[in-house]
Amino acid sequence: MPPKKAVADAEKPAKKTKSGGRTKKVSAYNKFMQTELARLKETEPNTPHLERFKMATQNWKTAKENPKAEA
To answer: How far apart are CA 15 and CA 22, in angstroms?
Structure first.
């Protein structure tokens, strides 16, 4: 079997990309967690991520953004 030839980048066909795909709407929880984790990272830089995540989930329970908030 003969050795394979290296194909130059210019000879490779262009990859097709999907167009017109829908993006998921970010839920209130995801949006809150994104901003809350960033805020906690600023205020608690020495706290491990797992602990900050636990704090953020506790804060979600009483957050005004939460439609099922207990407060």
So the answer is: 20
